Q: What sequence folds into this?
């Protein structure tokens, strides 16, 4: 459940979803960010042997509008722009982006397209119960969606297992340290940007149902269990299941640790030639350490390891692939404000494919430098 209030890269001010009981006057708050990145990668080893590299500037931006309608009713609209496809999380021996779990391992869609990332309303039914309807970012996954919430510059390959944004309804119950959310939506696994069912080829009434349970241990961390059943997991067409377990630990003010385990299955279409069940496994482990007085500006370092493996890709038996990534990032606030981040990251990953007849592998070394402006 991506509901953490901590903002790792920057301590930016999040839009408050509700006004206080004493202030029921309608109000509108605007927030967002501009993210500019210089990134590059190079294939340093591969079989079959190949040479491939790429260096580019890219950008992304978010403009969010949070409307407090009353002390019980609110709305949120997020417009998101991805100026270019960033360096891939992995490439194959031909230098092409690797497709893992049916999703290209590239962050973003590029093309200077403006997308409505979120457009939803919330109704606070009681002090503990909240209803959300419209289009909203899925609860599923530990790694944040927007750049200011990341502990590094790139997201890594595991986000390919997080599913699509949800179009539907979500009921959330919160009391003390416990939060539970039940979501019913058009789909989860591969329904494009998750528009209406009729526009993405899903079977009528084939909804996705998700359950998300989180328990927080005060300011020391939390544990989160996730489960999703999708009755029509496009594009393969069979039903799909997602099980996830993740947690966060903050033993002291300097250290934040996170870990995640994901297991997914996607069944084949009835009577299809490709009739094996696709299985997906994702693992992530991370530690962030604040440097304190070791640097003249606020700074922290993040080490992260991710692994994604897929067997019977697209329901074809013995067609397997995997990506393993190791990254190290330095996050800083050099301008005397937590609204500007100057960050640096290096990453190493190895991608492998094997369909029983041929196999490939490629090792990639990448680097990225970022200036992140938050308002």
A:
């Amino acid at each position: 459940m991506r509901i953490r209030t901590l903002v790792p890269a920057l301590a930016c001010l999040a839009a408050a979803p509700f006004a206080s009981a004493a202030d029921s006057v309608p109000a509108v708050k605007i927030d967002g960010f501009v993210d500019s990145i210089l990134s590059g990668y190079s294939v340093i080893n591969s079989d079959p042997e190949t040479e491939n590299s790429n260096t580019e500037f890219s950008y992304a931006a978010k403009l969010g509008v949070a409307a407090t309608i009353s002390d019980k009713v609110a709305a949120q609209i997020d417009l998101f722009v991805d100026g270019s496809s960033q360096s891939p999380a992995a490439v194959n021996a031909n230098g092409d982006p690797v497709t893992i779990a049916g999703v290209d391992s590239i962050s973003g869609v590029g093309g200077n397209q403006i997308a409505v990332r979120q457009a939803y309303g919330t109704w606070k039914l009681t002090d503990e119960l909240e209803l959300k309807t419209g289009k909203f970012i899925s609860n599923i996954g530990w790694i944040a969606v927007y750049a200011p919430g990341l502990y590094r510059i790139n997201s890594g390959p595991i986000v390919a297992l997080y599913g699509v944004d949800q179009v539907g309804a979500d009921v959330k119950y919160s009391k003390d340290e416990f939060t539970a959310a039940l979501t019913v939506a058009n789909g989860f696994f591969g329904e494009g940007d998750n528009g209406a069912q009729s526009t993405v080829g899903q079977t009528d009434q084939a909804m996705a149902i998700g359950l998300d349970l989180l328990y927080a241990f005060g300011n020391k961390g939390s544990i989160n269990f996730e489960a999703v059943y999708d009755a029509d997991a496009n594009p393969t067409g069979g039903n799909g299941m997602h099980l996830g377990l993740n947690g966060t630990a903050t033993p002291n003010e300097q250290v934040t640790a996170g870990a995640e385990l994901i297991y997914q299955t996607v069944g084949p279409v009835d009577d299809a030639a490709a009739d094996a069940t696709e299985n997906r496994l994702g693992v992530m482990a991370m530690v962030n350490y604040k440097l304190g007085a070791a640097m003249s500006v606020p700074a922290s370092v993040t080490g992260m390891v991710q692994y994604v493996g897929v067997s019977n890709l697209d329901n074809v038996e013995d067609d397997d692939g995997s990506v393993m990534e190791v990254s190290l990032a330095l996050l800083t606030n050099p301008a005397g404000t937590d609204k500007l981040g100057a960050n640096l990251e290096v990453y190493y990953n190895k991608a492998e494919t094997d369909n029983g007849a041929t196999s490939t592998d490629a090792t990639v070394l990448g680097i990225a430098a970022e200036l992140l402006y938050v308002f």
Summary: The chain has no helices and 18 strands. The radius of gyration is 21 Å. Confidence is low (pLDDT under 50) at residues 11-22, 91-96, 99-109. Residues 296 and 334 are 9 Å apart (CA to CA).
